[in-house]
Design brief:
This protein is of the alpha+beta class and 188 residues long. Helices cover 28% and strands 24% of the residues. The longest helix has 16 residues. The chain is globular, with a radius of gyration of 17 Å.
């Protein structure tokens, strides 16, 4: 397996359901700001709405950090709208819901399951230059935590701004960081 860390996101153009409207979202919309690609298997399922609600409940925190969230599944934009209209939980979602109908994004991010043409639960943090800085993929029965993703985004942003420092485990803004060097070897 080849890692996608520090790889450029692919050029893409997909339909989306955003704020009650159908729109087109492209890679050009992503560059210039931090982005979260939040892949999930399918609309009208079980774990997926709990995750999307968790992201929706934390959306303002992501926005405050200068990041846009993109929920992605292989469903159509029409299915996204129908789910939004039918579910009080999904009505909370204000971020773009991308319709990866061809599986292009899911395949390029390495999360497409060819057996059922649905995405695994993949989470990717992309920097303003369009490079993937965090990649996490898990099996579909395991839900994710938006607060942990926020912490990881904060750490990625800190490291991007302070290239000579790194963030240790459980780091939070304001906590001590590390400056890598030979003097730290064997001391931590």
């Amino acid at each position: 397996m080849k890692t996608i860390i520090n790889q450029q996101i692919p050029s893409f153009s997909v339909d989306a359901f955003v704020d009650g409207e159908f729109k087109t979202v492209t890679d050009k919309d992503v560059t210039g700001k931090w982005a979260i690609f939040f892949f999930y298997p399918a609309d009208f399922t079980f774990v997926c709405p709990t995750e999307l609600v968790d992201m929706a409940d934390n959306y303002d925190k992501f926005k405050a950090l200068g990041a846009e969230v993109y929920a992605v599944s292989t469903d159509s934009q029409f299915t996204h709208k129908a789910w939004h209209d039918a579910s009080d939980s999904i009505k909370k979602v204000r971020f773009p819901m991308l319709a990866d109908k061809t599986g292009f994004l899911s395949e390029n991010f390495g999360v497409l399951n060819p057996d059922d043409f649905m995405a695994y639960r993949g989470t990717f943090v992309v920097n303003p230059e369009g490079k993937i800085k965090i990649a996490e993929v898990q099996d579909n029965g395991i839900g994710r935590n938006a607060e942990e993703l926020l912490r990881k985004l904060e750490a990625a942003q800190f490291v991007a701004e302070h290239g000579d420092q790194v963030c240790p485990a459980r780091w939070r803004p304001g906590d001590q960081t590390l400056s890598p060097g030979i003097e730290l070897v064997g001391k931590i």
